[in-house]
Amino acid sequence: MPCRYDIPVEQQHGQGQDAVNLPDSEINNVSPFAHLLDTDGIGYDTFIPGDDGLIHTHHTSEQYRGARAESTAERLTNSNEEESTAERPADHNAEESSSGQPAIDAQQPSATHLDSTDEANKPGDKYTADKTDTAESAENADSANIHLGAGHPSRKSRRRGAKMPHTAPEQPATTTAPAMGTVFKPDGSVDVTNASVHAQTSPNNAEPTDAQADAPQSGGNATDEVTESITAAASLDDSEHPAQQPWKGFAARLGTAWATFHDGVSTAWSAVASFFSTVFGAIARGWHAFASAIARGWHAFTSLKAVHAVISALKFFKSRIWDKRMRFSFAFYTIVFIVVTAASVLGLQWSVYSEPTYAKGQVVDDQTKALNSVAGQLTSFVSQIWLHHSYQAWLNFIVLGVLYLTFILVINRFWVATALFGTLMTVFAIANKIKVELRNEPIIPADLQFVTGGNGGSIMSFTTKKDMVLINSAVTGVIWLIVVCVVLQFLDRRRGLIPYTWKPSKFVSVKNITAMVCRWAAAVLSIVLCVSFTWGLSVTGSWAKNFATGLSDAPQLWSAMGDATANGPAMNFLRLAHVKIMDKPNGYSKEKMESLAKKYAGEAEAINQTRTANLTDNTVIMILSESFSDPTRVPGVSFTEDPMPQIRAIKSATTSGLMLSPGYGGGTANIEYQALTGLNMANYDSTLSIAYQQLVPKLKWTPTFNQIWNEANGKSSSIAFHAYYRTLYLRDSNYKKFGFSKFYAIDGKPVLNGLSHIDNNWAYYSDASFYTSTVNTLFDSSASSTNQFIQMVTMQNHLPYLDWYSDNPFKGNGGTSTNMTEDERTSIETYARGVNYTDQATVDFLNQLNQIDRPITVIFYGDHLPGIYSTASEDKANQIALHETDYFIWSNAASASATTKLDDSTSAYTSSNYFMAQAAEHLNAKVSPYLAFLTEMHAAIPAISVPASAGDSSQPVYLDAEGNRIRTKNLTADQKDLLHDYQLIQYDLTAGKQYLKNTDFMTVAQ
Questions:
Q1: Distance between CA atoms of 395 and 665, rounded to whole angstroms?
Q2: 422, 500, 739, 862: which could form a disulfide with 628 (CB 3.0–4.6 Å)?
Q3: Structural domain range at position 201
């Protein structure tokens, strides 16, 4: 197979060719590659681009192999003379050139072996070298070595006149021969290429140059034979031989560029390597000097007699005392474990108790004082295990004990774990005590967000001098605890509770590996146990929930303080640590939420075309009336008088109807949450039982309807009132998150004034006094000229119902209810009288608002029925009726909607999440995309509630416009689409990425 070898021009010297002196100006113009062509399989012909064409030289295969072998040996032996060779005088180089041995740059790569087709010559061929012709073989080998060497002669030697032999052609000829073979690249690498050689000789009549005429001639027979071949090839038509000159130019530029890049990278890398070598070398020398100085100093120090004596004493102490100290027994560990755990339980329980206060002059016996004291309450908490078979104390001991054990197993050092656990419990107890004194509320997981959110520095500003004394005492106690544990750690020879070693000599033993596996397995399992218990404590049916219930755990989710007092602060904290909010709806994404925002923005625009008013043109008062409902709608309950005639008359004249409540006998916070946010508890996971306790504290942003007024009229436009303690359902912190500027309650600041009780109802303040206090606070203040959103929560009709009222027309003959126990009858009759008081107080309140020359709209609703109808609740057919309360939307005389009453088809049935959308419709006010969605949702499914509203345990409850239940399987495609949009919106706002926050979804057009 024909082969082509590309080698640098400067190396092209061989027999039968003339040496040429190229001027300096043309050195860079010479093509960097010449071509070595095997034309007949038994020899090699070199065609070198010259000024007038190609310079041709022929070599036999034997010559080429001999030249390569000698060239390799010569380079190996003369490697130390490369630099001197490059700097020889010009006359010396010229002398070498005339003898056929020009200077060769030793830096160039060596020649590469030829293809296997060149390994041997055919016997009898006229080009086969005579093996006995030693002199000729040597001469040809030298020629071939010069011709095919791997190095370029230096530019310096070329400029000093080193001749470059070549052979002048006798006649013009153009030869194109296909070739496939090894390419010798300038960097010494080898490539196999397919190419063709286009060789052109100089014209016939061209006169040889002086250099050509003076060059020695050799190898005449071979040259003549190859010349004939070139001449014959020149007779071929040019169209059959594509020109190779452009490719050679490209190859030349590519080779030059690569060589330049390679040299630059090599230089840069050498510089970097040299720099780091210098730097690290200096660092190593400096470190060695430093270490040597330390070693010399230490040697000098330990050589002192006094120091030597101390060292000897320490060695004696270690061998005779330290190494022989005892290992504390596991029995001792157990005793310490029980004592520390019990102390932690009592300490946390102490943090939620406070000493009672008695009125001046009140006579209290010593026994009562003892029982009501903190010590008495702690004693009662523990002794109830035996007296009342309530095991909350034992449950707290187990929970804290498992946590303590986890510390021990993870750290594997008993005394270190004891110090850490004791410190943690002390800090928790002190912080809990201070918060209870400040806000009558224990620490909950949401408080950790307050601290980690950058507010930790402001905590100390809440403390009093009394608190500082407590803190200082706690710090002293913690220091002593740590000191004792450190001492015991050193006195205890036991290195770890589960000992093992990392020493290579003992690591691979079966005993050590077994101990290591047990140690880490115990640590991991203890962590898993703690996480699993916390994760499942609020999940109905989980092992954690069942375990806690079996030990008398009775959650009081409506009151964090009550839960901590009854069940322990540890259980209250863990109960709120993890709650599943809701499942991720299908298709939830940023693009989907932006699409929904755009979709309902269009719906809002369509609605607003027919609306002329603004919500913020009115003061809106939302009244949650505790447990208010019409008792006569309960099956089996009746009276001789109507307990709520005034409100019944109001309902007949304004927008009104029945509200489907998710609660019966409780759940106030959830109904309030739905009314303020427009979200629905039915969309949440069943384990999320109270949003105010389990969800809102964890959220950084919660959109509520009162914020519409804040945006339009300023942040002071939202005010809340509650006729009870501000910490109930964490309202104090939640209202701040909602954007209420003030929260009036019966405790703390600002405080409600002028409240009073009715007869013997000493537990709760009357609605009448609450209404009056609210009106006086609102409309006597400087902010009365601004339209506001007012949130009011009453307490008069809250349970229990203990025959509070002296004048009760619904008692005795006034009550005509049948088939019920005396206790049930007493509760119902007392409750009916309370409803009657509320009925009159509400009418009086509305009359007061009618006197104000400013548009005011009231949204009044009862949150749930009282849990006193035990007879009616036994019949499952009454479940929905026991979850329906009364509501109305009323506007005063100064409002343009004073006489508005929406059609019963849109108002007869609702749920509290729709109140603001209904109020906007009642006021003919423009809506946001969110309110537009709720308006459309209310038209499709008028009422939505949790499964418990119908006594079910799986499917939410949906009511149509006539109050009939819509089964999930009977929902239309449009209703299902709207419900899915509802789930997407609610998930995004509470459990998702809150993509809607960055849109105008909550913005109301003005």
A1: 28
A2: 862
A3: 4-240
Q: What is the pLDDT of residue 48?
A: 62
Residue 443 is assigned to a structural domain of this protein: yes
Q: Are 43 and 61 in contact (CB under 8 A)?
A: yes
Residue 790, Cβ neighbours under 10 Å: how many? 22
Strand 174-184, strand 190-200: pairing = antiparallel
Contact 396, 348 (CB under 8 A): yes
Sheet harboring 909-910: ordered strands across? 742-744, 718-722, 789-793, 619-625, 856-862, 884-891, 655-660, 909-910
For the segment 685-708, the average pLDDT, to the nearest whole number, is 89
Q: Which residue has the tokens 């339980």?
A: 345
pLDDT digits (tens, 9 = 90+) for 304-335: 878 878 888 888 877 777 777 788 888 999 99
pLDDT of residue 90: 42
Give 360's DSSP letter: T
Question: Quick one: what percent of the chain has pLDDT higher than 90?
Answer: 46
pLDDT(601) > 70: yes
Is the same domain home to 273 and 228? no
pLDDT at 942 over 60: yes
User: Whole-angstrom distance between the N-terminal and C-terminal Cα of the chain?
Assistant: 90
Cis-peptide into 442, omega within 30 deg: no
- State how far the Cα of 81 lies from the Cα of 414, in Å rounded to an integer: 75
Sign of CA dihedral 480, 486, 491, 495: positive
Please answer whether residues 488 and 415 qualify as being in contact, where contact means their C-beta atoms are separated by less than 8 angstroms: yes
Residue 583 lies in a domain: no
Residue 505 makes CB contacts below 8 A (sequence gap 6+) with none
- Whether residue 943 sits in one domain with residue 872: yes
Q: Is 901:654 a contact under the CB 8 Å cutoff?
A: yes
Tokens (6 digits) for 233: 């090839």
In whole angstroms, give the CA distance from residue 804 to residue 645: 21
Q: Which residues contact 475 (CB under 8 A, 6 or more apart)?
A: none
- Token pair of 457, please? 């520095």
Number of domains making up the chain: 4
What residue type is 437 in one-letter code?
A: E
Q: Which one of 547, 575, 603 terminates a domain?
A: 575
DSSP secondary structure string, 694-763? HTGGG-S----THHHHHHHH-GGGEEEEESS-TTGGGHHHHHHHHT-SEEEBSSSSSB--S----TT--S
Is residue 51 located within the same domain as residue 105? yes
Q: Which of 240, 275, 292 is the last residue of a domain?
A: 240
User: CA 794, CA 770: separation in Å to the nearest integer?
Assistant: 7
Is residue 989 in some structural domain? no
What's the CA gap between 853 and 448, in Å, rounded?
Answer: 47
- 8 Å CB contact between 108 and 188: yes
Amino acid in the structure at residue 300: A
Q: Are residues 566 and 631 in the same domain?
A: no
Distance CA 792, CA 628 (A): 14
Residue 813 makes CB contacts below 8 A (sequence gap 6+) with 640
Residues 233 and 273 in one domain: no
Residues 820 and 891 in one domain: yes
Structure tokens at 557: 């989710």
**Tokens of residue 97, six digits:** 């050139």
Q: Are residues 570 and 658 in the same domain?
A: no
Let me know if residue 661 belongs to a domain.
yes
The pTM for the full model equals 0.59
Query: If you ran DSSP here, which 8-state letter would residue 354 be given?
Result: -
Question: 């349970």: which residue's tokens?
Answer: 799
- Bridge partners (DSSP) of residue 589 are none
**693 vs 347, which has greater pLDDT?**
347
- In degrees rounded to 5, what are phi and psi of residue 828? -65, -40
Residue with tokens 């979709």: 599
**DSSP per residue, 307-353:** HHHHHHHHHHHHHHTGGGPPPPPHHHHHHHHHHHHHHHHHHHHHTT-
Distance CA 624, CA 722 (A): 10
Q: How far is CA 121 from the centre of its chain?
A: 75
